[in-house]
Structure formats: C-alpha cells, structure tokens
Design goal:
With 334 residues, this protein is of the alpha+beta class. The protein contains 9 helices and 7 strands, in the order ααααααβαββαββαββ. Helix 3 crosses helix 5, helix 4 packs across helix 5 and helix 5 runs parallel beside helix 7.
C-alpha cells in the first residue's frame, strides 16, 4: 500500500520528534555530568539514570491518550499511579545495583521527564495543528470568496445588457454610446476578475461608467446626486464590491410612474478610510423576484466584506418609510 504525501509527512514527524527530544535530553544530561566527572563516569551515569526512564514516560503517554483524553479519569489515575510506583521501584533498584554510590529520586525523575516530554510534544503538535487549521480555513475562505466573486459578474452583465436592450427597443440614438460604456465595463471586469484588490480610482471610474449607462437608459426620469470628496491616491479596494449597492438604487429606486425618483450616492475618502453611502426611494414596481435578487446581492457583499475586511469595516442598511439607505465604511489597503 502506497502512502500519500501527507501520511508520510505525518509519520515522519511522529518518528522525528521523540528521536530529537531524547537525543537532546541525553546530550544535556551527559554534558552536565561531564563537567563534574570524567568521560567514563559521564557515559555510565547518563545511561544508568536516563535510559531506563524512557519506558515509563512512554507508558504514561499511552495511558494519558487512551484514558485521560477519553475522560476515563479513574482508570487514568489508577494506571498512572501503578506505572510510577511499580516501574519507579524496579528502576530505582536497577540504578542502585549498577551504581551503589548513586543517590537519585527515581519517582521524581519519572514525573519530571513525563511532564517535560508531553509538555513539549503537545505544545509542538498544538502549534502545528493550529497552523494547519488556519491554513485550511484560509483556503476555504478563498474558495468561498472566489465563488462569491464569480457570482457577481454574470449578474452584473445581465443587468447591463438589460439596460442596453431597453434603449434598442426605443430606437434610441444613445444606444451606440451605451454599447461603448458597456464595452469599458466588461473590459474592467475581465482585467480584474483574477485580482484580489484594485486601485480605488479604477473602481470609482468603473462605478462612474455604470452610472452614465443608467442615466442613458433612464433619461430624465430621476434626480441623481453623485458626490465624491477626497482623493483615492494609491488606495486599493476589492473589485466589484460596491457595484451591488449602486445597481440596487437604480433597479429598485426608479419607477416609471413615480414623481419623486431620487437617488443619492456619495463617496468620501479620508486618509485610508472609504465612506460609501447611497439612498433611494422605494418604488412599488418591485416584484418578489426582484426583492429576492436584491437580498442575494446584498448578502453576497456582506460575506465578501467579512472575508476581505474582518474588523475593518462597518455596514449599516436601513429601510425607513419609503427610503432604502446604505452606509459603509472600510479601512483600505495602500
């Protein structure tokens, strides 16, 4: 049976740790004794007082894993005391036989060695396990992020094509301009589809082009206030992050028969902080499907914010009377 790479690596780590631990500890004890005695005495005492302790340490480790970790505490206590008592007695007897002049505390040495060995082992294994867990979580988060991002593009393309289609139905002379704007939008999407972050000024230009496309489609059927305060500089932002909110204000905030179609979009940049806000009145044209699409798009943005800007963003979404308001603040990368 051929073991895969991960299994071989795990087995290698399990075998390597005890070898390194016992070798290092033996060398330490040998050097300490060597400072006080000759080479022959150091070799003899190191073997007599060190090697016999390996057996009870391993037995105590097995008992710990088989009983303590499985919450069989009574059996764990009984077996631990038995191992320390019985093996401690025989090891002490062996040491006194081989080196009568010696004076050691065998039981204390067993307990000390066990605590040192298991403490270091579980500390190392715990650190490795935590590292692997974080690595796995990072991969899962990236996979989820890629999926969320991939869901944005088709949805956005569909809505943009609908905008141009509505112009062609009216034989509008603005159709050609709309096609050029859509071409710029699609080029941006293709260029940024594999990027985690893009320059904020590029994302703002993308949003500006989309707003111009919607203005062509809707004509003068709404009042728009779009303001930008501050300079984007060299700040970076995740691509296609704000467009869901911008799409939403046009899709759900403008109705053919409404007399007050008001849209407000604001971007404020201060140092490395972006404040984005938008507001639209809620028209009565929205059907259940439109509301479901809206909720899905916003949930997508929420999850992307959690993955990309954990602890670095605040998002407030409110529905007040006939108005829908979004306020988002993000600490950006530079």
């Amino acid at each position: 049976m051929i073991m895969n790479k991960n299994m071989r690596r795990s087995l290698k780590a399990k075998l390597l740790f005890p070898v390194l631990f016992w070798t290092s500890l033996l060398l330490l004890i040998f050097v300490v004794i060597l400072q006080l005695n000759g080479l022959d005495t150091a070799l003899k005492l190191s073997a007599i007082y060190f090697l016999p302790l390996i057996l009870p340490v391993y037995l105590l480790e097995v008992v710990f894993e088989r009983f303590f970790l499985k919450k069989k505490y009574l059996l764990y206590v009984i077996l631990t005391l038995a191992i320390i008592g019985v093996l401690g007695f025989f090891i002490d007897l062996l040491e006194k036989t081989l080196y009568p002049k010696g004076d050691s505390s065998t039981i204390g040495a067993i307990i000390a060695f066990t605590l040192i060995y298991m403490g270091i082992k579980y500390l190392v294994l715990g650190a490795k396990q935590e590292f692997r867990l974080k690595e796995l979580e990072a991969k899962q988060a990236q996979a989820e992020l890629d999926l969320l991002t991939s869901q944005v593009n088709p949805h956005f393309l569909f809505n943009s094509l609908n905008s141009i289609y509505s112009l062609t139905l009216k034989n509008s002379p603005k159709s050609g301009e709309a096609v050029m704007l859509l071409s710029d939008l699609m080029r941006y999407i293709l260029e940024t589809s594999k990027k985690k972050y893009v320059l904020l000024k590029e994302e703002m230009a993308f949003i500006g082009n989309y707003i111009e496309l919607e203005k062509l489609r809707l004509g003068g059927n709404f009042a728009l206030e779009y303001t930008i305060t501050g300079e984007p500089g060299n700040l970076y932002i995740a691509p296609m992050l704000l467009i869901a909110f911008v799409e939403n204000v046009f899709k759900h905030g403008v109705g053919a028969t409404e007399s007050k179609n008001t849209i407000e979009i604001g971007i404020v940049i201060a140092k490395n902080t972006l404040q984005f806000s938008c507001m639209n009145n809620i028209v009565r044209k929205n059907n259940a499907l439109g509301k479901k699409e809206n909720q899905t798009g916003i949930e997508n943005v929420k999850r992307r914010l959690e993955l990309l800007y954990p602890g670095r963003h605040t998002l407030s979404i409110q529905k007040n009377n006939d108005r829908f308001m979004v306020n988002l603040q993000i600490k950006l990368n530079d």
